[in-house]
Automatic annotation (TrEMBL):
This is ABC transporter ATP-binding protein. PROSITE patterns: ABC_TRANSPORTER_1, ABC_TRANSPORTER_2. Gene3D superfamilies: P-loop containing nucleotide triphosphate hydrolases. It holds the Pfam family ABC_tran. Residues 8-224 form the ABC transporter domain. SMART domains: AAA.
Length: 240
């Protein structure tokens, strides 16, 4: 990670689909090394915001300021690996430089997939495919890591393991992170700050000051969860 890494800044962002403003004057800053989780009801604009930051919003109109560094990596709910490329080739696809493959091998080792470089994506489990997707993000040495429900399709146990891995990788590489999730517990467990989106704006922005490791049974954890559920307007146990 470059020492002059900068975070990202979004100011007065408006994004419209037709007449409808999905993002309506949204402001958000994420510092280098800061981990922000983004919650919001279905359709509240979370993916629209993430795509705007990633520069992937070709199908909308809008205004506002986006100050985003060059090195941005994005992880999605599905790993989006190319099935006709082996694991290492997927990781380094589009990465230049004579040492790209060596960096790719290192990234795979970091996510626990040493020795699987020549495997085909179809030979890996869902969790392993998401690990490859994380390695593909890491190899680009991102200043900003955007993740849109990257664990949404994984079983509960694999998801817990991936939480640990993501925390470890972020602590080591210190990108600015924006994680979109439906899972309030995931947000409180992983993030330095949790932001709740409503009607195209930020309704709540709360710093999570619990020490690691964070336990769901801790009363402090539960009080963050209650505060977030209230902001989301949902009752315990429901999905936003
Ligand atoms: N290409 C599009 N054309 C028209 N409307 C769109 C388009 N993409 C998204 N929308 C609308 O914009 C709103 C926000 O969508 P977005 O995908 O950002 O929500 P979200 O918060 O990520 O939802 P979810 O949690 O269900 O993934 C939704 O009402 C959606 O229908």
């Amino acid at each position: 990670m470059a020492s002059n890494a900068r975070g990202l800044r979004v100011a007065n962002l408006v994004r419209r689909f037709g007449d409808r403003a999905v993002l309506d004057g949204l402001d958000l800053d994420i510092a280098p090394g800061e981990f922000v989780a983004l919650l919001g009801r279905s359709g509240s604009g979370k993916s629209t915001l993430l795509r705007a930051i990633a520069g992937l919003d070709y199908d909308v109109t809008g205004t506002g300021e986006l100050d985003v560094p060059d090195r941005v990596s994005v992880a999605f709910q599905d790993s989006r690996l190319l099935p006709w490329l082996r694991v290492l080739d997927n990781v380094v696809l589009g990465v230049g430089g004579s040492d790209a493959r060596e960096h790719g091998r290192q990234a795979l080792a970091e996510v626990g997939l040493e020795g699987r470089e020549r495997a085909w994506p179809s030979e890996l489990s869902g969790g392993e495919q998401q690990r490859v997707a994380l390695a593909r993000c890491l190899v680009r040495d991102p200043e900003v890591l955007l993740a849109d429900e990257p664990f949404g399709s994984l079983d509960a146990l694999t998801r817990i393991r991936m939480h640990g891995l993501l925390r470890e990788l972020c602590a080591r590489h210190r990108p600015a992170v924006l994680l979109v999730t439906h899972d309030v517990d995931e947000a409180v467990e992983l993030a330095d700050r949790v932001v709740v989106l409503e009607d195209g704006r930020i309704r709540l922005d709360v710093a999570v000051t619990l020490p690691a490791p964070r336990s769901h049974r801790d009363p402090g954890f539960q009080s963050y969860r209650d505060q977030l559920l209230l902001a989301l307007g949902i009752t315990e146990g429901a999905t936003p």
